[in-house]
Design brief:
The complex is a heterodimer of chains A (200) and B (334).
Chain A: E1 10-12, E2 16-19, E3 30-33, H1 45-56, E4 64-68, H2 74-81, E5 86-91, H3 94-106, E6 113-117, E7 128-134, H4 137-142, H5 144-149, E8 151-163, H6 164-176, E9 179-186, E10 190-197
Parallel strand pairs in A: 2-3, 4-5, 4-7, 5-6, 7-8
Antiparallel strand pairs in A: 1-2, 8-10, 9-10
Chain B: E1 5-11, H1 18-26, E2 33-40, H2 46-56, E3 60-65, H3 70-80, E4 85-88, E5 94-95, H4 99-109, E6 115-123, H5 130-141, H6 145-150, E7 164-166, H7 167-172, H8 183-193, E8 198-209, H9 215-218, H10 224-237, E9 245-249, H11 253-264, E10 268-273, E11 283-284, E12 287-290, E13 302-304, H12 311-321, E14 330-332
Parallel strand pairs in B: 1-2, 1-4, 2-3, 6-8, 9-10, 9-13, 10-12, 13-14
Antiparallel strand pairs in B: 4-7, 5-8, 6-7, 11-12
Helix pairs in contact in B: 10-11
Classes of the chains: A alpha/beta (200), B alpha/beta (334).
Chain lengths: 200, 334
């Protein structure tokens, strides 16, 4: 195996194992195959915390996922492996979209992922059951109205990659938009929020 | 028992960002503090936010005053502080949860320290100007007393809301002063005159909000000219107390502006040093411009006022290799 694609298996939470192609799947775990990339491969604390929270969500079979700033697609892929039906992955970086496409193939999920190069404005879908955004706090503030409006009533938003200094502002902004705070995790440098949209 | 730390927070019209700032204080791992919040004539809901929070947390001591300015609010607040250690805070900034813990323990372990800052990070960053980023980087690189003192005249080395200081030290100096320049820089320079010891923690413990209406952008006493005046004033009192003549390294616009402020302090520029061949051998205001290699033995004190990025270090290296000592033979002031 080439050095570029090799990395040690990484167990996250109760169920997931992040694995390089060709690795052995640890007993009892769900394999999430990933090429090594620069856009979040599970080692970064924000990605890991998102995955741990996604595991705890009761994702229904018909659940539709919006992954904004999807990078490698790791969060969407995890959500699909854990039971969701379809994901829309949006990223402004062509290299990230290409990586996400390759990873969706590695996990045989290419039929369940729609790729979108650009930003939220390039996406027409709404009524998502779960929104994922592991990006900087200032972007989360900028896109709050657009991102929030795409989540269905009672749907969830998992926001991560929020530096400490943005935590309060981001929380407050989404709460003003009708979201209820479910989890606020403060880590070494970043924080993660799980929010639920109020019923219509 | 008085608290171990008093947080000094002067405010005016900070309603939009105050909840985030207070929230960051409530999250502190170090709990033995009081907050001295001085509302300097707010016309928005700042004071009602303070009242609301003070009802929930008795550590908040809140004061409403007519708008008399930052210095008056700071001095009034300082008088109210019961703790021997004062941590400054602003109503639009955010503290890391361990800020007070780290600063308090370091001050306790180092009784010789008079003021302890921490590293800061501006936010939001996307529209942050290059100059602010450079200032942040420069400031954050100064950790020990020697580094801070060496660069004391380059710029103000501390973000005011990032410092913790000994109340007695500042009170002995008469607290803050209204001058033609920034009250914090004025304080650091007065502290330095009396031999105060400074340091900075290597951790980033203050998040410094950048916004268009920030005082450092808008106030007359925070302009570059105000800073030059401030530096010239303090140089006159200490470094240039026994001389009326200096040389300036840097014959560009900055150097010429320095010549003007030094003239107000009755200090004459009797020579210029520059690397630009077009300037060498010219005369500026009757003073000769020479190349660094032409610096005579035992020249008058040299003020380095070259602001170009990287130039300061090159000049320091040059002086070092030519037997000139910083602080004794020359000083960087830009």
């Amino acid at each position: 195996m080439s050095g570029r694609t090799a990395f040690s298996p990484l167990n996250i939470g109760q169920h997931l194992s992040i694995l390089a192609p060709g690795s052995r799947v640890p007993n009892g775990r769900i394999a999430l195959w990933l090429e090594r990339g620069a856009f979040g491969s599970g080692e970064h604390e924000t990605t890991r915390h998102c995955l741990e929270i996604i595991e705890t969500l009761d994702l229904q079979k018909q659940a539709r996922i919006l992954d904004f700033g999807s990078g490698t697609g790791i969060l969407s892929i995890a959500a699909l492996l854990l039971g969701a039906e379809k994901a829309w992955c949006v990223d402004i970086e062509p290299a990230a979209v290409a990586a996400c496409q390759r990873n969706s193939q590695l996990n045989q999920l290419e039929d369940q992922i729609e790729h979108c190069l650009g930003s939220l404005e390039n996406l027409t879908e709404t009524d998502f059951d779960l929104g994922l955004a592991n990006i900087y706090g200032d972007i989360l503030l900028d896109v709050a109205v657009n991102l929030g409006s795409r989540i269905r009533p009672n749907g969830y938003l998992l926001l991560s990659g929020i530096l400490w200094e943005y935590n309060f502002d981001v929380r407050q902004r989404y709460q003003q938009l009708g979201f209820k705070l479910i989890i606020n995790q403060m880590h070494n440098e970043f924080s993660t929020l799980l929010l639920q949209k109020s019923a219509a | 028992m008085p608290p171990k730390v008093s947080i000094l927070l002067p405010l005016r019209n900070e309603a939009s960002s105050l909840p985030a700032a207070l929230n960051s204080l409530f999250r502190q791992t170090f709990a033995d503090w009081e907050l001295i919040a001085v509302d300097d004539g707010s016309t928005d809901t700042t004071f009602s936010i303070l009242q609301q929070e003070a009802r929930k947390d008795s550590r908040l001591k809140i004061f409403k005053r007519p708008a008399t300015g930052l210095v008056a609010a700071l001095n009034f607040g300082l008088e109210q502080c019961l703790a021997p250690l004062v941590a400054r805070m602003d109503g639009d900034d955010i503290c890391h949860p361990q800020r007070l813990e780290y600063q308090y323990s370091t001050m306790q372990q180092n009784p010789q320290l008079d003021l302890l800052a921490c590293r800061v990070r501006h936010f939001p960053r996307p529209r942050l100007q290059e100059g602010m980023l450079a200032y942040e980087k420069w400031q954050n690189a100064l950790l020990d007393h020697q580094q801070i003192e060496r660069d004391l005249f380059v710029e103000s080395p501390f973000a005011h809301p990032s410092v913790m200081y000994r109340k007695q030290k500042v009170c002995n100096l008469g607290g803050y002063r209204v001058m033609d320049w920034a009250e914090d820089y004025d304080l650091w320079l007065r502290m330095a005159e009396t031999g105060a010891r400074f340091a900075r923690l290597p951790q980033t413990l203050l998040y410094w909000r950048d916004r268009p209406q920030r005082l450092t952008r808008t106030a007359a006493h925070c302009t570059l000219d105000a800073f030059r005046k401030c530096k010239a004033h303090f140089l006159r009192r200490r470094w240039l107390a026994d001389t009326s003549q200096v040389w300036l390294w840097g014959a560009g616009l900055e150097g010429k502006l320095w010549r003007k402020v030094l003239a107000r302090e009755e200090i004459n520029v009797c020579g210029w040093i520059d690397v630009d061949p077009k300037k060498i051998c010219q005369k500026i205001h009757q003073a000769q411009v020479i190349a660094p290699a032409q610096i005579p033995t035992n020249p008058p004190f040299i003020l380095v006022c070259v602001g170009t990025r990287g130039a300061r270090q090159q000049i320091r290296d040059y002086c070092d290799s030519h037997g000139m000592a910083e602080g004794q033979d020359y000083l960087c002031v830009t």
